[in-house]
């Protein structure tokens, strides 16, 4: 029997994607989500195992998955918003203990509340959310009225603009596209 004592949270199902049963999932360890892997979700108070049928990258911090036996949007809709777990024993097999704890993965949910700074180290504002509904992820950034005017701007969050992240000081440094702050 699967219990909360022998599973570890690894992500969240955000929403359905398309009409063929794909789900958008955020995860801190996308490298372990692959076809054949067992994930677990709480369905009506019972931890239920599901097996991954396919995966593909979506954006930084999220992937698209399908689950064996589910091939329509309607069949998987009830899984949206659910926490995804993996059995501890399987997780230990997939992630050796010798692996470095400081990975290079950045997860969108972790960015909320971080201070965004530009390539020169100047404060732009505070990340208040993101939109990953398209191929291009954008961060919603509430600007400080004294620095950039009281407004919300949308900053692209792409690998080629990413510079640094400091989890301790809660800062994210991105190269800001020219002219974006003047809009």
How would you sum up this structure, described in words?
The chain is elongated and about 55 Å long. The chain has a six-stranded antiparallel barrel with strand order 1-2-5-4-3-6. The N and C termini lie far apart (56 Å). 10% of the residues lie in helices and 44% in strands. β7 (115-117) and β8 form a beta hairpin. It is mainly β and 183 residues long. The model is unreliable at 97-103 (pLDDT under 50).
Q: Tell me the number of strands.
A: 12
Shape by Cα distribution: elongated
SSE pattern, N- to C-terminal? EEEEEHEHHEEEHEEE
N- to C-terminal separation?
56 Å
The helical percent reads 10-25%
User: Mean pLDDT, as a whole number?
Assistant: 83
Largest sheet: 6 strands, antiparallel, barrel
Spatial sequence of strands, sheet with the most strands: 1-2-5-4-3-6
Proportion in β-strands: 35-45%
Number of helices: 4
- Assembly level: single chain
What is the gyration radius calculated from CA atoms? 18 Å
Give unreliable regions as ranges.
Answer: 97-103
Secondary-structure-based class equals mainly beta
């Amino acid at each position: 029997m699967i219990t909360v004592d022998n599973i570890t949270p690894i992500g969240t199902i955000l929403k359905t994607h398309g009409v063929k049963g794909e789900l958008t999932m955020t995860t801190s360890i996308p490298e372990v989500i692959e076809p054949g892997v067992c994930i677990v979700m709480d369905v009506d108070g019972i931890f239920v195992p599901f097996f991954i049928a396919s995966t593909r990258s979506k954006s930084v911090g999220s992937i698209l998955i399908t689950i064996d036996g589910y091939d329509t949007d309607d069949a998987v809709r009830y899984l949206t918003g659910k926490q995804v777990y993996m059995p501890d024993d399987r997780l230990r097999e997939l992630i050796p203990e010798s692996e470095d704890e400081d990975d290079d993965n950045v997860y969108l949910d972790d960015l909320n509340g971080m201070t965004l700074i530009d390539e020169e180290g100047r404060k732009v504002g505070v990340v208040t959310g993101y939109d990953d509904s398209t191929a291009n992820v954008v961060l919603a950034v509430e600007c400080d009225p004294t620095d950039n005017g009281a407004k919300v701007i949308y900053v692209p969050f792409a690998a080629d603009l990413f510079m640094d992240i400091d989890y301790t000081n809660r800062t994210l440094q991105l190269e800001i596209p020219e002219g974006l702050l003047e809009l």
